[in-house]
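tl;dr need the bound structure. longer version: we got a ligand (FE2/S2 (inorganic) cluster) that a collaborator sent over and nobodys looked at where it sits. i said id run it. heres the input, straight from their email, havent touched it
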Amino acid sequence: MGETMNFVKVAKVSEVPAGTMKHVEAGGKELCIVNAGGRFSVIGDRCGHENARLSKGTLTGTIVTCPMHSSKFDVTTGKKLSDPILEMGGLGGMLSGCPGNVKKAMTQMFQGIAENQRLIRTYDQPVYEVKADGNDLLVNLEGAK
Ligand code: FES
């Protein structure tokens, strides 16, 4: 548990209804406030894969799915539950009308991107202590676990 003096007001309770998420910025951090069935959690709002805003993803219970490549995280622990989905589907169809040399160059380019994508690790999200004080939501910015 962190010191209470590190808690800063980041939003109003009424701004984050049950089942929703809200992006806020405080102390130079991007935060995702989550209200999962009346219980508040705060995690970093930069996906541990490629920094997409998790608050723009979908929330199912206490699990958030990233809007970019569908990694899943538990919002109460910040733990990654599943890795990104990185298939480049439909490439063959997309290039079917292209001349052979263009098709070859494009395929090589996409393969290079896919190879680099596979090397990118996906990390757990930082989790911050949060508490309600009346209609204020307070977050301990020093409390990332
Ligand atoms: S940026 Fe979140 S899964 Fe890729």
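gonna send this back to them w/ a short note. The longest strand covers residues 29-36.
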